[in-house]
Each structure stands twice: as structure tokens, then as C-alpha cells.
Design a protein that fits this description.
heterodimer; A: alpha+beta; PmbA/TldD fold; seven-stranded mixed β-sheet; six-stranded antiparallel β-sheet; 11 helices; about 20% helix; globular; B: alpha+beta; seven-stranded antiparallel β-sheet; 9 helices
């Protein structure tokens, strides 16, 4: 746990006083203090290409009155700096008065340990694993032409000080291990990428040669793609595999259910609360409480304990994801979804681990039911236009389905659909829900935050596949 | 006020001296300071203000051919000392890499010319508020516009780059950026579009009402879109999309992608990669240019490069490390391209629209569908169907796909190039791409 008050002339009493005095006539706000330590070690092209360590320290001071948010940050934690931020906030809100809401829910549950993953493992042992990865893949097959492997670790300590002196703290570990391999055969080059991660120590990945599984998976994806044919173009049935393909859920409906877009009525979902937005049997939750998951949080970045928020229950839209600001303006409560990339950014309502729950059909049944379509197993990234509801995601491993049978692999193609209607096209929900391997980062308004997704296999009756083959 | 050169220089030399004292054979340090102030508006009233004030330090230490780096925002001497110790300890156990080195001394920038990248004008928040009021007034004048969000950001930055070969230089830059996002609604649909302007000097920013009107107009025309069938079609890329093709090209010719063998343009120097009529220039010394620089992120002097001459690839974008790997001299492009542009084509915008009886005019793409290894391209798109030179109706929920290797060879450019951003392109037509729709 960081002590933010032994670094300069700023004492906790000073901070409490400045915070209370600044936020007295505001509706909400807080002082957010953050210290993070991170490392990144990259092996590329047979060499350790970079080893970087970084440390970051700073505060963000926020005051909210009515609909106006004033924010000021600095990486100098001192009395002067905090006072000048305070002046800056007051000048923005000078003519708007509010009543401070002191209420904030409490919980003593924790979803990860107070550890610093960087310090737990020596640099040498990490370098050793990266070199083993490189040797393993290059020896595995003559077609391996390039290997990139990396470790990224972080420990972030935060403290939130609210008006009246209430303080909330959290220490968040996060790690990621990634392998990318490029193969070349008969003049064709293809890459395969796989990674794992979560809020835990590196140990789970370094023990039992677990890194080998990551290598095998990256190699397998690249090998499949070496045999790929041009993807079809047009509307067809799509079977999605379990796990990571749930970024479909994240893009197609997740963003559209974030509180800010609905308060502003710019989301395609803003007038659909209580309405049927998905087929029967489709239930989607956003859960910040799963142990050690990448998207989990003990408290969010406003200090609210996270929870499991039901977004869609059996096809009916039940809840939006809320931070305190949007919740207050929409007369509801925060769902513990207020997040920020770091102290440089304002809080926004964001996803945590977004999951579609299992149904009772099998993947086999889905594939057998398709005459012509595609089976998508793995994806790169996705994106959505909140307002029109149109979303895309890019396949990195997919196959054609002909007459109920899986056929040849197809080249990476973009799939496009319409968020508010896509879940009504879900005609089968599998019994095989799986969590993603812990690699997702979600971008919104220039801020990246770690997230998770999960889903079972699903069959979508109609989606547009953006290949080149007509 | 943004910190002055003297302050940054004193921090940089403190770091250099300390690392040298610890035994580093070479050191490179960057110290920067940046202050930004943003005002956000929504539906004609103030929504948020945001002030940021940030210092940033990054240090690379070398021990012979071993190298590692640290970065931090905490510039207290005590913290710097701890970090440099950590950095140097890491350097000692990082394996050697024969290509690690500071840039060649004779390539370092010798003099700094005044490119007018800094405008000291303060645009107080009250003035930003007035600008955004005018902007949103214009943007919301049509009653189909149901939401407007706009912002104005003023940024002032300063930096010093110093290395143990005696290089020590830096300069101030400024930027003023304003943007407007509008949402329009009719019975059938809700659509969003935007317009923005970003300049080094305040006086060059577009007039508020022009920006607001443009955003609204671009949004309203997207209402009630249709989906079209899947077919081979000629595609016209609006300037804001065609410049993205240049960014893909720049990534594909970065020395790092070439050295790793992960670019579809590897080994293509002196070969035809674009249509014969195409010329691509990267020019670092444009006065007030958003991508202008006096030297690259390693201190290497950067000159204008003709990247494509009559369709033929002439240069990669080379930094020191990857240059050594490829046996090429750095051309001052560590950190990538500077002001990158296609030279004008020789057909007018109107004639380009009329060139075919039917084409698809793309104004927005979504998704990350560019594969630099294979050149495959597939993205979601929004735009308009154009028949006989006329915009017929808006189109969405489609994808467009092709392969850059073919696409680049089938480019026709209009003659409407403007220098608005750091990457600029005229309107572009590519024949024979695949659209997937119904």
C-alpha cells in the first residue's frame, strides 16, 4: 500500500481540508491518488528487444455540480499543486451550487491479493522464459520465421479521499504474457497470436511449463491461417466459438448499455429499458467480482464496491452500467462501473467482465444446423458506433461451414452487424460458457482499461461477413 | 506556464551525469513538460473542464551493447536516483544486442530552424466557452440534430532530448484542437458524425460556426441509410479515410517491420508498389506543420524523403537500431513519418465522382482490419452510393475488402490535396474492391 503523504509537504490533514473545502458546495467529487509501477520485457527477432520499467505518481481532483464535471490533475503531489487544482475547479463551478452526497456503499470483499507481481519474480527468470519460448517455437518447425514474446506486469495503488475525510484504498496487480509467431511456407506468411493474463502473480504461468501451451496455441492459429482461403462476402449464418469471441457482446451491446450514452440519449438502446432486445434464453451480466480476472475490481475508481450487474435477463433489457455521476443524473445507483485509465483521466461508466451465460445446446448441434455459413473461433479487435448501433470485429481464426460440416479455414475478415437487433438473431445458446484468457483492453474516449469477456458457443442466424469471395 | 528549456536541461544533465557516474557507457534522456486545458460542451452548455499538467522523463542506459530503459512522471531527484539505479542494474543483466547504440554522431541535428510550431497565445477558458457556444449554436440549428458534444483543447509542450555524445536540444510546440460530434435522428434511424480542426497556431483554427455547420451537415446526410448487395465495386475514399491508406503504408515501410520481415512491402525497394501516377512525400520542415520536427526522437536530423516516385518504392522509414540491422543509415524517422502526403492527381473531385456510372463513396470505416503481414484489408464502412456523379443515398452496415498490394496499384487521386493534418491525401478512388452487404 502506498503512503501518498510522506512524499512531500502535503499531509493527510491538509488534503482532507482542501478536499472538503473545495467540494463543500458540489454534488460530488473526490481526490484520487495513484501510484503505479510497471514493467515490460519484450523478446523479438531472437533478442531481448526492450526491458522497460516505469513508475508513475499523481493525483486527479474532481468536482461535480449538476451536469458539469471539473477535473484537474498533476503528477506533483504537494500542497501548492493541490491548492492550484482546487482553484481551477472552483473557477469552473463558480456559479453552480450543489449538495454533497456522502453516501458510498461498503464491502470488505477482495477479488485479488495485495501483491507486486514485478518484484515477486527476478528479471533473470523472466528473461529465461522468453528465451525458452523463442527456442521452443523456432525448433518446433522450420516454417517459424519470427517470434515475439512479452511479459507485462503492473501494480497500481489508489486512494480516494472524499469530502468529510472518508478514504478508500485498493491495490491492483495485473499481468500479461503474450506470444506472437509468424510462419512462412511456399511464399505465404501468416501470424498467430495468443496470450494470457489476470490480476495475479506470474508464478501460475511460469510453473509447469505453462508457457508452452501459449506457444502451441499461437503456432496452431498461424498454421491454420497458412491454409486459409479467401473469406466469403455477404449475409450468412455465423457460429461463434466460446470464450474470447464474446467481444461480440462487448461491442454489439456492452458499450450501448453504458450509462453516459443513455443519459445523453445517444445510444441506440436509450429507450429500450424493459423491452425485449435479445432472443429468449439470452442472459448477459457485467461482473466485477470474479477472483483474479483482468476486468475484476474490488472497488471501482470512485470507491464503489463492484458487483455482478444483470444487463439482459432472458432477452429483456434490465440495467445500464453506471458510475456515480450518470447514476445521480438518471436517478439510479452506481453499479460500481466508474473507471479510468489512470489519474490523468476522468471517470466514465465502463465494462468489467461482460459475460453471456450458458444455455443448453451443443456446438455440434449448431454446426449441423448450418447449410452455408462460417464458424468463427478467434478474433482480433472490435469497434462500435454507439449511435447507429453498427459494430464490427475481425476474425483471426475462422472456417467455412458447408452442409453442416466444418470446411476450410478462411482468411481474416471483418464481421459487421447491428447491435440492437443482433441478439434477436441468436437462435441457439451453447452449454459451454468459457472465460477469455485474460487479454482484453477496452478503449473509450482515449482511455484504455483492462476488461474480460465470456460466452458459450452461439449461433447467429444472419450477419454480414466481409470477405472478398462473392 | 510550461517549464523552460533551462529547467528541462538541468534535469536531463542531472540524469546523464548520474548514469555515467554509475558506469553506463552511453545514456539518452528525454524530459518533457506539457500543459493542456480542455473545455467540453454538450447541447449548448458547459459540461466539463479539464486541466492537466504533466512532466515525463525517459532514460535509456547502455553498457556496451546492453540496453534498458525506464520512464517516470516523478522528477524528484531522489526518485530519479532510485530509477536510474534500477535501470542500470537491469541493463547489466539484459543480453547484448550488437545493433544497440546511440545514433551516429555525424547524423545528429546540428541546427534548429524555426518552424513556427509554438504559438504562445493563451486562449482563456472563457474564450473557449464563447467559441464552443457559437460552434454548438451552428451545429444544432437544424431540428434533426438531437445532441451536440464539442470540445476545445489548448496544449503547450516543451522537451529536451540529451545524450552522452553531447546532443542536447529541444523546443516548444503548441496545438489548438477543437472538435464537434453531432447526433441526428429521423423516424428510421439515428446517426452520428463529426468535424474537427487541429492547428499549431490559434489564428489558423476554423471558424466556430463553419465547424458546427459542417458537422451537422455531415450527420444529417447519413440519415435513413440502406444496406446494399454484395458486389465488386469502385470505391471512392473521402479525404478523411484516404489519408488512412498512407498511415498503413507508413507502418508497412517502417524499418522495424521490414527488419522483422513482417511487412507485405519487404524487399520491394525500387519496385512498383503503387500505380505509376502516384508520388508520396514525407516532409518534416513544413512551417506550422502538425507533423513537423527538427529532428527525430533520437536527435537524428530529418530531411524530406520521396518515399514513392512514379509508383516506385524509394525509401523506408529508418531509425538507428533497425537501420543497423538492415545495413541502412538512419534517415531521421525514429518515431515514424512526419508530414506525409500524396501529391495531387490530375483529375478534379467532380470528375472522379463521374468517372464511373456507379461507385461507393466511403466517409467512415470501423474496425482494425488492416493486416500488415499479408496486406489483407477488411473493415466495416459507412458512406453513400454515387451514380453518374450524384450522391444518391446513404449506405451502412457493409464491409469493404481487398488486399493493399492490389489496392495500391489501382489508386486514382483527385487534385484536391489540402494540408490540414500531419497526414494528408486527396480524394482517392480504388477500382475493383469487394463490398459485402445483403
Amino acid at each position: 500500500m502506498s503512503n501518498f503523504f510522506n512524499k512531500s509537504d502535503l499531509t493527510r490533514q491538509d488534503a482532507d481540508k482542501i478536499v472538503s473545502e473545495t467540494l463543500n458546495n458540489c454534488d460530488d467529487g473526490e481526490l484520487y491518488l495513484e501510484e503505479s509501477k510497471s514493467e515490460s520485457i519484450v523478446l523479438d527477432d531472437n533478442k531481448i528487444k526492450s526491458s522497460n520499467y516505469s513508475s508513475d505518481l499523481g493525483f486527479g481532483f474532481r468536482a461535480i455540480s449538476n451536469e458539469v464535471v471539473a477535473y484537474s490533475y498533476s503528477n506533483e503531489i504537494s500542497k501548492d499543486s493541490l491548492k492550484s487544482s482546487s482553484e481551477n475547479l472552483k473557477s469552473t463551478l463558480k456559479s453552480i451550487k450543489g449538495t454533497y452526497n456522502h453516501e458510498i456503499p461498503k464491502s470488505n470483499k477482495k477479488f485479488y491479493e495485495d501483491i507486486n507481481p514485478i518484484e515477486q519474480k527476478s528479471l533473470n527468470s523472466k528473461l529465461e522464459v522468453l528465451n525458452k519460448v523463442n527456442d521452443f517455437l523456432r525448433k518446433k518447425d522450420g516454417s517459424v520465421k519470427q517470434v515475439t514474446a512479452s511479459f507485462a506486469g503492473e501494480q497500481k495503488s489508489i486512494e480516494i479521499i472524499r469530502s468529510g475525510g472518508e478514504a478508500l484504498t485498493d491495490v491492483r496487480p495485473l499481468i500479461r504474457f503474450n506470444v506472437s509467431v509468424m510462419l512462412e511456407k511456399n511464399g505465404r506468411k501468416e501470424t498467430g497470436v495468443y496470450g494470457i493474463g489476470g490480476r495475479q502473480s506470474y508464478d501460475d504461468y511460469l510453473k509447469n511449463d505453462n508457457w508452452k501451451n501459449v506457444c502451441e496455441e499461437a503456432f496452431r492459429i498461424a498454421s491454420v491461417n497458412l491454409e486459409s482461403k479467401p473469406a466469403p462476402a455477404g449475409e450468412m449464418k455465423v457460429v461463434l466459438g466460446p470464450g474470447w469471441p464474446a467481444i461480440l457482446i462487448h461491442e454489439a451491446i456492452g458499450h450501448g448499455l453504458e450509462g453516459d450514452f443513455n443519459r445523453k440519449k445517444t445510444s441506440a438502446f436509450h429507450n429500450l429499458m424493459g423491452e425485449k432486445v435479445a432472443s429468449d434464453g439470452v442472459t448477459i451480466v457485467d461482473d466485477g467480482t470474479i477472483d483474479n480476472r483482468r476486468g475484476s475490481l474490488t472497488i471501482d475508481d470512485e470507491g464503489t464496491p463492484t458487483e455482478r450487474t444483470v444487463l439482459i435477463e432472458n432477452g429483456i433489457l434490465k440495467n445500464f452500467m453506471q458510475d456515480r455521476h450518470n447514476a445521480r443524473l438518471m436517478n439510479t445507483r452506481s453499479t460500481g462501473s466508474g473507471r479510468r485509465e489512470n489519474y490523468r483521466h476522468i471517470v466514465l461508466p465502463r465494462m468489467r467482465n461482460t459475460m453471456m451465460l450458458s444455455g443448453n445446446q451443443t456446438q455440434d448441434e449448431m454446426i449441423k444446423s448450418v447449410d452455408k455459413g462460417i464458424f468463427a473461433v478467434s478474433f482480433g479487435g472490435g469497434q462500435v458506433d454507439i449511435t447507429s448501433g453498427k459494430f464490427v470485429f475481425n476474425c483471426t481464426e475462422a472456417y467455412e461451414i458447408n452442409n453442416g460440416k466444418i470446411g476450410s479455414p478462411i482468411k481474416g475478415a471483418t464481421l459487421i452487424g447491428d447491435g440492437p437487433s443482433i441478439l434477436k438473431e441468436v437462435s441457439m445458446v451453447g452449454n459451454d460458457m468459457m472465460l477469455d484468457p485474460g487479454i482484453g483492453t477496452c478503449g473509450k474516449a482515449g482511455q484504455g482499461v483492462p476488461v474480460g469477456v465470456a460466452q458459450p458457443s452461439i449461433l447467429i442466424d444472419k450477419m454480414t461477413v466481409g470477405g472478398t469471395k462473392l | 506556464m510550461v517549464k523552460d528549456q533551462e529547467f528541462l536541461k538541468s534535469k536531463a544533465s542531472y540524469c546523464l551525469d548520474l548514469a555515467k557516474k554509475m558506469g553506463a557507457t552511453d545514456v539518452s534522456v528525454t524530459v518533457g513538460h506539457s500543459i493542456s486545458e480542455t473545455v467540453n460542451f454538450r447541447n449548448k452548455s458547459l459540461e466539463a473542464s479539464d486541466r492537466s499538467d504533466g512532466l515525463a522523463l525517459s532514460i535509456e542506459t547502455y553498457l556496451g551493447k546492453r540496453r534498458s530503459s525506464i520512464s517516470s512522471s516523478n522528477l524528484l531527484d531522489e526518485n530519479i536516483k532510485t530509477l536510474i539505479e534500477k535501470c542500470f542494474e537491469t541493463t547489466k543483466i539484459t543480453p547484448e544486442d550488437e545493433f544497440n547504440s546511440l545514433p551516429d554522431k555525424n547524423l545528429l541535428a546540428k541546427q534548429i530552424s524555426n518552424l513556427k510550431l509554438y504559438d504562445e497565445t493563451r486562449f482563456e477558458n472563457d474564450k473557449k466557452i464563447k467559441y464552443l457556444k457559437d460552434l454548438e449554436e451552428a451545429a444544432s440549428s437544424d431540428n434533426q440534430i438531437i445532441n451536440t458534444e464539442s470540445s476545445f483543447t489548448e496544449n503547450k509542450s516543451n522537451f529536451i532530448l540529451a545524450n552522452s555524445d553531447g546532443f542536447c536540444d529541444g523546443y516548444k510546440t503548441s496545438s489548438f484542437t477543437t472538435s464537434c460530434v453531432t447526433v441526428a435522428k429521423d423516424e428510421k434511424s439515428m446517426e452520428r458524425d463529426y468535424e474537427f480542426s487541429s492547428k499549431r497556431h490559434l489564428s489558423d483554427i476554423k471558424q466556430a460556426s463553419d465547424l458546427g455547420n459542417k458537422a451537422a451537415e455531415q450527420t444529417i446526410r447519413k440519415l435513413s441509410p440502406n444496406k446494399i448487395g454484395s458486389e465488386k465495386i469502385n470505391i471512392i475514399f473521402d479525404k478523411r479515410i484516404s489519408k488512412g491508406m498512407l498511415s498503413v503504408f507508413a507502418s508497412a515501410i517502417s524499418a522495424s517491420a521490414i527488419a522483422r520481415g513482417t511487412s507485405f512491402l519487404k524487399d520491394k525497394i525500387d519496385q512498383q508498389v503503387f500505380a505509376k501516377s502516384i508520388n508520396v512525400i514525407d516532409k518534416p520542415d513544413i512551417i506550422k506543420g502538425m507533423g513537423s520536427q527538427n529532428f527525430d526522437s533520437e536527435g537524428v536530423n530529418s530531411n524530406t524523403l520521396q518515399l514513392i516516385e512514379n509508383g516506385i518504392l524509394k525509401n523506408y522509414l529508418v531509425d538507428t537500431y533497425n537501420g543497423k540491422k538492415l545495413n541502412l543509415q538512419s534517415n531521421g524517422r525514429s518515431g515514424g513519418n512526419t508530414n506525409l502526403y500524396f501529391e495531387n492527381g490530375n483529375i478534379s473531385y467532380e470528375d472522379l465522382l463521374k468517372k464511373n456510372s456507379k461507385s461507393l463513396y466511403i466517409t467512415e470505416t470501423i474496425g482494425h482490419g488492416s493486416n500488415l503481414v499479408t496486406g489483407d484489408y477488411s473493415v466495416g464502412a459507412t458512406g453513400f452510393l454515387v451514380e453518374d456523379g450524384e450522391f444518391k443515398y446513404p449506405v451502412n452496415e457493409i464491409t469493404i475488402a481487398g488486399n493493399f498490394k492490389d489496392m495500391f496499384k489501382n489508386i486514382t487521386l483527385a487534385n484536391d490535396l489540402e494540408f490540414e493534418y500531419s497526414v494528408n491525401s486527396p480524394t482517392m478512388m480504388i477500382e475493383g474492391m469487394t463490398v459485402a452487404g445483403k
